[in-house]
From TrEMBL:
Gene3D superfamilies the UniProt entry points to: Catalase core domain (2.40.180.10)
Family: Belongs to the catalase family.
Catalytic activity: 2 H2O2 = O2 + 2 H2O
Name of this chain's protein: catalase
Reported cofactor(s): heme
Cross-referenced SUPFAM superfamilies: Heme-dependent catalase-like (SSF56634)
GO function terms (MF aspect): catalase activity; heme binding; metal ion binding
Gene Ontology biological process terms, A to Z: hydrogen peroxide catabolic process; response to hydrogen peroxide
EC numbers for this chain: 1.11.1.6
Region described as Disordered: 1-25
TM stretches of this protein: none
Residue ranges of domain Catalase core in the record: 11-396
Record's keyword terms, sorted: Heme, Hydrogen peroxide, Iron, Metal-binding, Oxidoreductase, Peroxidase
Species: Edaphobacter modestus
Length: 498
């Protein structure tokens, strides 16, 4: 950019001045992010496309397969999710551990948070629990995510890690203090992945059969015991084994020493979230265990190594939007941003069909209308319809799976029927038809007939009845243009309605 075009005022890519680059646009101070936040989506979309082919964050990681086994018979009190419905029930899982800021070739012993991402292959679809080894994070608003990660990467001038960038950002972002304290404590450099805990960090929700909603935070407590490096030990390990955590995880599983975690959850009834003295959706805060104790849910065991690292670990794609019936989200702003950012990053890094790759695909029956795109390697839906609604037997919605409505700040978030409060589809098209001259009306009917005349009569009947309700002459004109009598069509519609 030439010097005369530079602006001291931050702008969007299109040059619009930015008035607030600190806070996402939300429904009230604790409410969810709204789609009209053009700045948030521009920043997230641009950030997700900054580097190829490795992940923008969590570039270096290790993966393993395992099983989750239910131990708590009381989970039905909180959720209808079927993976919890029976004590002893097992669900296959895949996990990816990672460092956050380093590149693929970086050391496993850097002082850095560790990613803790799990994919549960349930009978109702995939549940992805995409967390870290810390219960909090550095920021509470997704608008600042790209800015923060830039400080953890390399200086644009020197291409070196920069303590100045890191501490400059942290010193101007006091909400980071909780996570900074954890990062620079003993837990900032875990001794491998087996000896650390995992957390959802974000607040999610669960819904039971009565429609009651409970907010929750997930905890994975290592059964191997917490084990960390000192700063000196971590620095030494870099010179001995840059891949210490990968080495330790892979070979422990190969030896049959299967690592395990106790899976626990904190649960907060929906009503209590409105008055709790801490914002329960703030990613920089924990819920004190004295107020919301850990409830044991089950056990996670890792018992099988991947056969091909690239296919199964590098191409693994986790996204917090993947929840199953009986689970939901919360107005956690950082979570709301990740719901959009993660699948967007996967589409860019792996391609639009990333979720059809074997490691990412559900193990239960599934059916969508998504078609085409690069690297489509399955049957692409065959000769079935690629639109909905359709009358050719394609998969259809099931109202029992509609998300439970949630109220934030006196406003309700839900899937509201766009047909429920306004069923007048006919007045304005009829008015437009009546404004046309007779010859224009005739041409309109002829244009419609050129296509409608080629389809099955049952579809013609439905559509011509719509035209007839706009204006009888409109329906009659189209019927005549395709060589049919309007009386037969109207009668057919009445019979269908009966």
């Amino acid at each position: 950019m030439s010097e005369d075009r530079k602006s001291r005022v931050m702008t969007t890519d299109a040059g619009r001045p930015v008035g607030d680059n600190q806070n996402s646009l939300t429904l009230g101070p604790r409410g969810p992010v709204v789609f009209e936040d053009f700045l948030l989506f521009e920043k997230m979309a641009h950030f997700n496309r900054e580097r190829i082919p490795e992940r923008v964050v969590h570039a270096k990681g290790s993966g393993a397969y395992g099983t989750f086994t239910v131990t708590n018979p009381e989970m039905a009190r909180y959720t209808t999710a079927k993976l919890f419905d029976t004590v002893g029930k097992q669900t296959p899982t895949f996990i990816r551990f990672s460092t956050v800021g380093g590149e693929k070739g970086s050391a496993d012993t850097e002082r850095d948070p560790r990613g803790f991402a799990l994919k549960f292959y349930t009978e109702e679809g995939n549940w992805d629990m995409v967390g870290n080894n810390t219960p909090v994070f550095f920021i509470r608003d997704p608008l600042k995510f790209g800015d923060f990660i830039h400080t953890q990467k390399r200086d644009p001038e020197t291409n070196l890690k920069s303590p100045t960038m890191m501490w400059d950002f942290w010193s101007l972002s006091p909400e980071s203090l909780h996570q900074v304290t954890i990062l620079f404590s003993d837990r900032g450099t875990p001794d491998g992945f087996r000896h650390m805990d995992g957390f959802s960090s974000h607040t999610f929700s669960m819904i039971n059969a009565k429609g009651e909603l409970f907010y929750c935070k997930w905890h994975f407590k290592t059964k191997q015991g917490i084990k960390n490096f000192t700063r000196e030990e971590a620095d030494h390990m870099k010179s001995v084994d840059m891949d210490h955590a990968q080495n330790d995880l892979f070979h422990s599983i190969k030896r049959g020493e299967f690592p395990k975690w106790a899976v626990k959850v904190q649960i907060m009834p929906e009503a209590e979230a409105e008055t709790y003295h801490i914002n329960p959706f703030d990613l920089t805060k924990v819920w004190p265990h004295g107020d919301y104790p850990l409830i044991e849910v089950g056990e996670l065991e890792l018992n099988r190594n991947p056969v091909n690292y690239f296919a199964e670990v590098e191409q693994a794609a986790f996204e917090p939007r993947n929840v199953v019936p009986g689970m939901g989200f919360s107005p956690d702003k950082m979570l709301q941003g990740r719901l959009i950012s993660y699948p967007d990053a996967h589409r860019y890094r792996l391609g639009v069909n990333y979720d059809s790759l074997p490691v990412n695909a559900p193990k239960c029956p599934f059916a969508t209308y998504n078609r085409d795109g690069s690297m489509r390697f399955d049957g692409n839906g065959g000769n079935g319809p690629n639109y909905e609604p359709n009358s050719f037997g394609g998969p259809t919605q099931d109202p029992k799976y509609v998300e439970r409505q949630v109220t934030y700040n006196s406003s309700t978030v839900g899937r509201f029927s766009h047909r429920e409060h306004d069923g007048d589809y006919f007045t304005q098209p009829g008015n437009l038809f009546r404004l046309m001259t007779p010859d224009a009306q005739e041409r309109l009917c002829g244009n419609i007939a050129a296509g409608l005349g080629q389809v099955e009569k049952r579809i013609q009947d439905l559509q011509i009845n719509h035209f007839y309700k706009c204006d009888p002459k409109y329906g009659e004109g189209v019927a005549k243009a395709i060589g049919r009598k309007i009386e037969e069509i109207i009668k057919a519609d009445e019979l269908v309605g009966a």
